[in-house]
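quick one, 412 residues, struct below
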Amino acid sequence: MTSSTSLSFFIGKRYTFSQREQRFISFVSLVSLLGIILGVMAMIIVLSVMNGFDRELKQRILRVIPHGFVAAEAIDDREDFIRQLESQPGVVATSPYVEEMVVMLYGERSAPVNLNGILPATETGVSDIHESLVYGTLDGLEQERFGIILGRGLARQLGAGVGDKVNIMLPDISVSPVGVHIRQKRFVVTGIFHVGADVDNHLALIHLDRALKLFRRNGAIQQLRVKTIDLHSAPQTLQQLQQQHPGLKVHSWQDTHRDLFEAIAMEKRMVSLLLYVVIAVAVFNIVSILTMMVANKRKDIAILKVMGASSAMIMRVFMMQGLLVGLTGILIGTLLGVLFATTTPDLVDWIEGVFGGQVFGSSIYYLAHLPSLLIWRDVVMIALVSLLLTLLATLYPAWKSARIDPVVSINN
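---
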């Protein structure tokens, strides 16, 4: 640091923290400082909570939804085809499946259902649905010829439980002399799973063999669930499979739930924008502070210029003053934001324990606690953007200070 810069820093610090003859300016500086602290802290906490929600949803949904799906128009040798896929880099396991949208009936209640036919022996390799079962096991689909496993939300909608018989209404209408008939099949509920996501409300599982007959697929398997080494690289792995096997149709978990995750990303961007506006408003006070300071220190600026201070040095004095306020606010706000972001779940649990309430009802939000995930990349970005806004706020007042005419200011 050169002597000129050191002098600019020293004078800027004196102007910032001096209490004499500028009490109002000091008060505005304090308000601006608090605004920056609260803005930075709130942004880190809110983004951490949104990251936590995003992580929780992905983990819960991907417990029953595999990383990817592969479909082929015709598979001559299923076993050989599966071996070829599982030998590809990035592919961990595969499992055959079929699915159809049907209507499920129980008593007077009905609900639209995504009915999946799975093979219990291989399904555990591509999803963790077996770990989400609260009643029954996947083996129950093998033991009970017409067994079915329901999501807990779906079971509650219908009022059905383990051992109850539900009817599956298929989109298959037949016409006979007697009249029009909609094909139905009765299944026994052998299990209930709970993931803690929307799939609980519309997903049901039956054995693959029963599904093939029910959907009249003639025993042909044309779809496979795929698990990859890393869920984030699943789209790239599936694209490589498609390039090696041009006849395949592939899509990943990001495609099946694109709307949900795009909505979460959009909410994160909008919340970030709003919080940046809060920080910008706090930073805008720095413009007011420096403008008033320049007006109050016109004679001081003139004396400095007469003594040989350059315009660049005068600009640095006021830029240093604004940056001191901004940097102090950013540093304190970042420390508090990181502290609260990492302790938010425990803090919410403590509040619930003290007041006896529940912040997040699991029946509404699928969560019994407030999730939080601190991503340091977000913290660095917030600090850098806040610093940039602070720097921009100092430019105009600093430029005005450098344009002051010492002769006019001293005479006045």
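The first strand starts at residue 68 and ends at 71.
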